[in-house]
Write a structure and sequence with these properties.
By secondary structure, the chain is mainly α. It has two domains: 18-162, TerB-like, CATH 1.10.3680.10; 172-234, Helix Hairpins (Orthogonal Bundle). Helices cover 62% and strands 0% of the residues. The protein has eleven helices and no strands. The protein is elongated and about 60 Å long. The two termini are 38 Å apart.
Amino acid sequence: MAKYEKWLGAGLGWFAGGPVGGLLGFAAGKSLEPDSKKYQNTGQTSEFETNLIVLAAAVIKADGKVSLQELNFVRDFFRDHFSPDSLDEKVRILNHCLQRSYDPRKACDDIRISASLSTRTQVVNFFFDLALSDGELHKSESDMIFVFAGWLNVNDIEFRKIKFSFSSNPNQSKYELLGVRSNATYDEVKTAYRKLVLESHPDRNPDLSPAEQSMMAEKFRMIQEAFEKIKAERGFE
């Protein structure tokens, strides 16, 4: 499991209730008034926590099944990283979200607007931890996390670093970075490498901002390193 800073719970400027919190208040145990049919606000679950639960439910459902390991992971995660006093409430919200669909783009947008890059990066780590809690990262889960990372404004290089850190096959990350299969021929590897080098070379992207230039340079370095490791490991000249 990834190591998380104290980025959860109080101190993020999130308040209980709000649009999503109010919508899910029914699931938190604040039941519908008999005649008004209006949702009540959640009791102790913040907007950030609720958005995270909405996205966690989407990741859990991505592979078409809901496992006990995933449910336990989310419960334990919120117990360990948030106030345990409202754990039952959060579990009810999760169960509610597993039975209904809410807009994950809205949840990502809310987190992106109000959370730092460090927090958003850790959210992506959380998604991978969750997806792997049942022992396997399915392509549908990986694809969904990739989309969520984009909506959270976590750049592609950072996403790949996170994904590679969760890879059970250390060789796969190098091939995936080059966009080829692990059994690709040398010509296929070399062609993919040359294409990526042309696309990501800093000198070919002079109009990027300094921050973007830095990210591009890091991507260029990673591509070169991946190619050299593949060559050495497979005896390519």
